[in-house]
Amino acid sequence: MAHSASFGSNAHSAHEHHYGEHVFRPQDEGEGDRVDLGALAYDATTMARLRELGVGPGWRCLDVGAGTGTVARALLREAGAAEVVAVDRDVRFLAAEPTAGLIAREADITSDGFAPGHFDLVHARFVLMHLPDPGRMIARLAAMLAPGGVLVLSDAVDLTTRDAPDSSFTSTVRAMWQGLRDTIGTDVAWVPNCPHMLRTAGLESVAAEIHVPPLVSGSPISRFWAETWQRARPAMTATGLVDDAVIDDAVRCLDSPGFCGLSPGMLTAWGRRP
Q1: Under 8 Å between Cβ of 162 and 176
Q2: What SUPFAM superfamilies is this protein classified in (predicted)?
Q3: Fewest C-beta atoms under 10 Å: which of 20, 131, 137, 255?
Q4: Per-residue confidence at 260, pLDDT binned at 50, 70, 90?
Q5: Buried b (16+ CB within 10 A) or exposed e, 224-258
Q6: Which residues contact 30 (CB under 8 A, 6 or more apart)?
């Protein structure tokens, strides 16, 4: 998916390529706009959960895979956080809008040298699904919490397309996941197990929720998927599951008032360090 998140290692050459380099490139025209469509679809849900967990004035936060920085800036402007360290593989979007309290850091979180300190909040959205060994990454991020700090992780969960009746939409979503897995290592199969992985990492008060934004014609999430499929089209057609005509029909479905498909959702899980 590639969305607010975006860095790490390519599945086939961990030390030679950044995550998404062959599919979602920050330097490509319109990539920032595509990421922002995802933010429009999910930021309100993310911020509501973070506020419910107590994020507020004085908190020191780490936003991993910060993308265009919408969550990082909302933590400062809406929640009143004292400081947000916003990390991504490419910080051009973060640097484009300097914000008081926002520290942009270009880094690879899979690197052994990544040790930014300890935080009251560590947040990552649509990041771990693209990286190898999510259990190891969860343990590393949990270790970056100060005592009493909270780790909040959001990744994609697909609730319907594996068993749903065949259609251009479901075939296209299946091809997207397979194509991204084949090219950049994306894997969402483990995501429902995230709460257990948080407990294994030693966190307490673990819980989770799922948000599925409605696929309404012209909505940010519908436009996000259309743009994502356009960028991932070569990887998707290479799976043999779809051709260009099927993808084009799926895009038309997203813009049809009568369409009733269910979008992949966002599972958010959280836990506190004792």
Answers
A1: no
A2: S-adenosyl-L-methionine-dependent methyltransferases (SSF53335)
A3: 255
A4: confident
A5: bbbbbbebbbebbbebebbeeebbeebbebbeeee
A6: 227
> Taking residues 244-249, what's their average pLDDT?
98
Complete domains list, the chain, with CATH: 31-157+186-213+265-272 (3.40.50.150)
Res 215 pLDDT > 70 = yes
CB 91 within 8 A of CB 106: yes
**Distances, alpha carbon 161 to alpha carbons 5, 158, 257, in Å:** 23, 7, 20
Q: What is the distance between the alpha carbons of residues 3 and 232, in angstroms, rounded to a whole number? A: 13
Distances (CA, A) of 72 to 25, 79, 104, 128, 187: 21, 10, 10, 18, 25
Can you list the positions of beta strands (E) in the chain? 60-64, 83-88, 102-106, 119-125, 145-157, 204-211, 265-272
The residue type found at 33 is D
Q: What pTM did the predictor assign? A: 0.90
State the residue for tokens 């265009």: 68
Residue 162 CB-density burial (10 A; 0-12 exposed, 13-18 middle, 19+ buried): exposed
One-letter identity of residue 220:
P
pLDDT above 80 for 6: no
For residue range 65-84, list pLDDT tens digits in order. Answer: 999 999 999 999 999 999 99
Tens digit of pLDDT for each residue in 12-70? 333 334 444 566 666 666 688 899 999 999 999 999 999 999 999 999 999 999 999 99
- For all residues of the chain together, what is the average pLDDT? 90
Calculate helix-pair angle for 244-254, 220-237, nearest 10 degrees.
170
